[in-house]
Amino acid sequence: MTTVQSIEKLDELLPDGYRARPTILDDVPQVVALLNLRSQEVMGVDEHDEDDLRNDWTEPSWSLEENSRVVFAPDDTLVGFVEFYATAPYVRMSTWGAVHPEHRGRGIGSYSMEWSHAKAFETMKQAEPHLRIIFESWNYAEHKPTSDLLKDNGFQLARSFYDMLIEMEAEPPKPSWPEGISIRSAVREQDEWDVLVALDEAFEDHWGHVKSDLKERYERIMHHLRNDKDYDPSMWVLAIDDATGEIAGVARNWPKTNEDPDKAWVATLGVRRAYRKKGLGLALLLESFNVCYQRGIMKVGLGVDAENPTGALRLYEKAGMHVDQEFHAFRKELRPGEDIMNQG
Fold first, then answer.
1. For the chain, what is the mean pLDDT?
2. Percent of the chain with pLDDT over 90
3. Residue 272: C-alpha distances to residues 243, 250, 283 (Å)
4. Among 83, 95, 97, 94, which residue's Cα sits nearest to residue 37?
């Protein structure tokens, strides 16, 4: 159970001979190796990639050294990692990390919890005083050590999410597009802003959505895209309203995942409210399957909220996808107040 000690005193919680320090970019290889030990435990694959983690850690306006810690054993092996993340309006904060399997049960997880809570209580001072504050952490559904640690520190299971998968054995069906809708791929450094605006509206009614400054989000997103070696906007599918020229719906597709280079990934699929109930979501998904199939990619995955209010799970199952992996979102309330976060 966390006691929210001052950050300066937290090292006293570590076992004799263990030490913690702020994370630096040179730690990327060791942290990726640590994270992949856990993904190997659960999934039998390496889910994390050095380039992706380095991309995350160099995000604009986010300080790696201020917002993360690494823990070393007496022999200088990196055995623990914890990260804290929050952006304005600071009502939804998150933490994640890992402990080396051979060093569990020694207080490293407890140290990580204390450190991240201290960061959360420090950061929430930037939020408006009347707003409700939520602290969040995600975990593989099957990874009991992390789930137990979160529960022991006051987190409760709040939501389940699924990674869905389809393995195509033949050419997928062609989509049927609503009248007045045309499609095209995206253009690098041209369409990203309009896509963000469309997806922000599309996800307004989704669990966890918080209105925030789109310009700040755009800068963060563009940092990630510009530094992503697999970013290929020609794989994105934009559904355009012929009458207005605006984006009605989007599927943002990636050619592969870290854990499986032969599996494409639909990172985001969203339809604006005015264009729902017309089959556009299914059409975007089927078109994504076709884009992948034409490139010789037979496996396609995506993530979905198990309780998605727009019926996305049923839509994906209708398209032939099945649940491949389950993840859990844990939450705890740090402060009651007016809730500006959508609860789905």
1. 96
2. 94
3. 15, 9, 14
4. 97
